[in-house]
Design a protein that fits this description.
By secondary structure, the protein is an alpha/beta fold. Helices cover 29% and strands 28% of the residues. Strand 6, helix 3 and strand 7 form a beta-alpha-beta unit.
Amino acid sequence: MSQTPTPHIGAKKGEIAETVIMAGDPLRAKLMAERFLENPVQFNNVRGMLGYTGTYKGKRVSVMGHGMGMPSIGIYTYELYNFYGVKTIIRVGSAGSINKELHIGDLAIAMGACTNSNYADQYEMPGTYAPIADFSLIRAAAEACEKFGYNYKVGNVLSSDVFYGENPHNDKWINMGVMAVEMEIAALYMNAARSGNRALGICTISDNILTGEATTAEERQNNFTHMMDVAFSLI
């Protein structure tokens, strides 16, 4: 397949910028378009997965939803990297902390992404592949957090296929220093690596399994803007 639109994205070639900031919730993508973009134009509404292209401080950028889980983000980011000429994808989303130092509203910058998924099996690697972010994006995101005064931690996340798990405390991942749990970053990093492009995941802590802290769906949709500030500072 080499033609656009694709089965999942209704945009024509050239309607999506080389840098795309993505969120699992398409309404969060809409919020980013309204809050950050100048003259945003909607390029996608296939399956309700909203996408917009505009400018931010004179630089062209797109925002788009990617849905929940690695199969969903895997499809969208594959098509963006391979059919639309996208070079950089930054995921902004929520994550559950399994680290006593990360509390609600803090940012987790994913240097690497462990996973319990079989997503990497498609590559037929002779071992276990370790998905990692682009270092220049990690460094810039950390510097932006320092500049804005946002609490953050750089480290390993767990991209899990399971939301309602048999072991909700994730003891073995905690023992290995994994700081937070989300559901997409590992697939994003693998697609970026395979296509020779860049990726970064920045998550806002929405709950802490160890302390019992939690937020509502509405709060997650509308109030988690610090990660967006950081993401747009990387444009």
